[in-house]
Amino acid sequence: MQEKSKVASKQSFSDQTSKTVINTALLKKIFEVTIGRCSGLKRNDPSFNPRTMKPFFTFDFYRFEYRSAIAEGDSPTFDVTRRYEVEESQELRDYFKFQFLKIDFIDDAVEYDNAGGMTDYIGSIRIPLNTFLEKDKIESFFEVKNEKSQTMG
Fold first, then answer.
1. What is the structure's pLDDT at 4?
2. Which of 23, 25, 55, 86 gets the most CB atoms within 10 Å of its CB?
3. What is the number of H-type helices and E-type strands within the chain?
4. What's the whole-model pTM score?
5. Mean pLDDT, consecutive 10-residue segments, the chain of 153 residues?
6. C-alpha angle with apex 81: 79 to 86, nearest 5 degrees?
């Protein structure tokens, strides 16, 4: 999805109108990351209770970071879309060739004690970004997997 950047703005001040148009030859790419909902999230610990779970997610994309709001329960609805506009460059192409979009899910309800052993990490989704070099859009359900590759939701 490449497009030439063209910005037009119009501002009104009383009876006067000022119009500014800026044209640039820079190629821009727009990427959207949407997280709709999760189903059946769980953690690998004996004290896990799905009713008290407070999941949120985080991800890093290129030069951007995002942390969601905290939701409730093991099947939360997030309905979050983040939109990123970046300049086309060799650095961006290399990033897409070799990196993953990793979305980590964490449970904010976990209470730590000195004994340790409990983890707030639920799992993650890993999507190879090189997939987007061939496709404009991927719309799918992804399994949340923990560090042992067990399905956690």
1. 37
2. 55
3. 1, 7
4. 0.76
5. 36 39 59 91 85 94 94 95 89 91 92 64 91 78 92 92
6. 170
Per-residue confidence (pLDDT) for residue 86, from 0 to 100: 86
Both tokens of residue 79?
A: 């309905």
Q: Would you state the pLDDT for residue 7? A: 36
User: CA nearest 69: which of 35, 111, 26?
Assistant: 35
The string over 68-92, giving b where at least 16 C-beta atoms fall within 10 Å of a residue's C-beta and e elsewhere, is beebeebebebeeeeeeebeeeeeb
How many residues are recorded in the chain? 153
SS (H, E, C) 82-142: EEEEEECCHHHHHHHHHCEEEEEEEECCCCCCCCCCCCCEEEEEEEEHHHHHCCCCCCCCC
Phi/psi at 133 (5° precision): -75, -25
Q: Are 123 and 77 in contact (CB under 8 A)?
A: no
Q: How far apart are CA 82 and CA 129, in angstroms?
A: 16
Pairing of strands 77-87, 55-61: unpaired
Tens-place pLDDT, residues 94-104: 998 999 999 99
Give the separation between CA 69 and CA 107, rounded to whole angstroms: 12
Distance of CA 126 to the CA centre of its chain: 11
